[in-house]
Amino acid sequence: MAKSKSSLPFNGAIGPNEILIDDDTWKDHFNHIIDGEIKAHGLVPRDYAHYPKEMFDLPSQLQLIPRSEWSDRIKEKESTKSRISDILLTAGIPSMDQDGVGYCWAHSTTGCVQAVRTIANQPYVPLSAFMVAAILKKGRDEGGWCGLSAKFAREIGICSQAIWPQGSRNLSLDTQKARDNAALHKITEDWVDLTRDVYDQNLTFDMVATCLLTDIPCPVDFNWWSHSVMGCDLVEVESSSFGIRIRNSWTDSYGEKGFAVLRGSKTIPDSALAIRATGASPT
Amino acid sequence: MRVLTSIILAALLAMPAMAAEPAPVVPSVPPPSIRLPELPPSPVPIPPNPVPVPVTKLGAGQLYVVSSDAPILLVASRDGMVKVINAATPLTLYANFVDGGDEVRTYKTGQVYIVRAASTGQVELIISPDLTGAKLIRRVLDVDNGTVPNPPPVPPKPPEPPTPPPAPVPIPAPGFRVLILEETADRSKLPAAQLNVLFSKTVRDYLDSKCVLGPDGKTHEWNIWDKDTDAKSMGQIWVDVLKRPHPTMPWIVISNPEKGKGFEGPLPATVTETMDLLKKYAE
User: Fold this and answer.
1) How much is the pTM?
2) Among A191, A233, A181, A231, which residue's Cα sits nearest to residue A75?
């Protein structure tokens, strides 16, 4: 597994070059063009007239970590370099690149699957988010939701980029070999509300916070951003003001090696799930 | 006194007269002629008998033959030391006789007892000439049939407590390996200090420094898995270690075959305790 030679940037809550997106700055990041380059998103806007916003009540299975413990736990994880971002950067896992195609909703899930494997110390296998989205959308450049890509990853898996290169929507790559390899990288355990449709599966902010404090990464969808990203760390931006450090799929050139922090209302996901475990495989 | 003297004198005077007359012939049965092998005695002290007794050596393949004109009874004082055969006559033997070497002997009449060594040790032959047990004739033989003598009876030893088999190393493959098992659904229930063991950079860096490299030549052989992980793709050693009992979660398995050490038990509660445990088995 490649090791990053640079020091970890997130000493303390927010890195010096880290992007902070909140209620005051979000419009600056809503723009799809950054540094002259069109950055795609891919999240399908939700029709609230037909699909009202609902939040989960406290789930029967996930034991929440009380808010009173968040601050101390965040500090502990910062001091021990045990956050998801720390583990990914130590292992040298780069950001994904959706390469201008509206497949963010597959990249958020795929990035989280890679993170789960890294946390488990499995060999680094770059996985193909394009395999997931291209098959689901029959090669079309079309948006979706993290719940849709997670369903695919749960049932079929995600194959290696060595078999299905990133950027390719060529469905001839959908072979038995690709499917066999994909089966090695299935989501085997997750927190997800399967009673709801894939576009309506969500977690409360406290559920997401609990998962991130226990190093369970969460693909999170934001309608304000029309974008789906990886939820990695719970961050205390200011005293008792908590946000989420996300990892984008716009390469390491975005923010601090692909990481940014969301705060305020901009950190509340519109759909989310949490990936706990994947299959174990060396390739 | 004068009368006694006269009687004695008369007896003495009559003796020549008695000797001069021919004795009356009284028919009598001649004493039985029992022929025993006669050999130069080789006195061998037989403890605990303090009196040296003539002993005849009877080796393997030799015959000690007792013949008698009249019926006699010959028995051995100990079972199993000699084999005694009461043979019928006429009998011709070609053998290595203890009192003559290899030769042919013919016994035309009478009774013949053939004695040969059946074990190693001393035995007494007891001969009754008149079949009444009176006037026994005894001969001691020092027999040796060429086998190891029966050892004296040994009092039974008390049963020794069973030696417990050495605990097998959990992962019988060369190299230091560690597996941590958990139930990912219960992560949020773990104390924060124990949760940090799973993700601490200190622990992960130490494991990278001590564990052998895996088949890819990059990833060190330590894993943090959900207890329900399917490890078929990771190799038989991991499949087998997952089959070992792990009654509580989280659980740690440490294996160092080169040092003959291994540990299986609950994951320690803190990073410090975990490091102490790892170092105990790694170094």
Assistant:
1) 0.66
2) A233
Integer Cα distance of B263 and B278 in angstroms: 9
Question: A211 - beta bridge partners?
Answer: none
Cβ count near A206 (within 10 Å): 18
Distance of CA B205 to the CA centre of its chain: 58
For residues A112 and A104, the answer to whether their CB atoms sit within 8 Å is no
CB A249 within 8 A of CB A126: no
Q: Is B209 on the interface with A (CB under 8 A)?
A: no
Coil vs helix vs strand at A236? strand
What DSSP element (H or E) covers A165?
none
Residue A85, CA distances (Å) to A133, A169, A273 in order: 25, 29, 18
Return the structure tokens found at A37.
Answer: 């380059």
Strands of chain A (E only): list them. 19-21, 33-34, 37-38, 187-191, 218-222, 227-238, 241-247, 259-263, 271-272, 274-278
Does the distance separating the beta carbons of A280 and B229 come in below 8 Å?
A: yes
Q: Taking CB atoms and an 8 Å limit, are A282 and B215 in contact across chains?
A: yes
CA R_g for chain B: 46
User: Any chain B CB within 8 A of the CB of A86?
Assistant: yes
Minimum distance, in Å, between the CA of residue A51 and any CA atom of chain B:
29
pLDDT in tens, B145-186: 887 655 666 777 777 766 555 557 999 999 999 999 999 999
How far does the CA of residue A29 sit from the closest CA of chain B (Å)?
32
Predicted confidence band of residue B16 (pLDDT cuts 50, 70, 90): very low
CA angle B135, B137, B139 (to 5 degrees): 160
> ∠ CA(B16), CA(B17), CA(B21), 5° rounding?
110
Judge: A281–B188 Cβ closer than 8 Å, yes or no.
Answer: no
CB–CB of B196 and A76 under 8 A?
yes
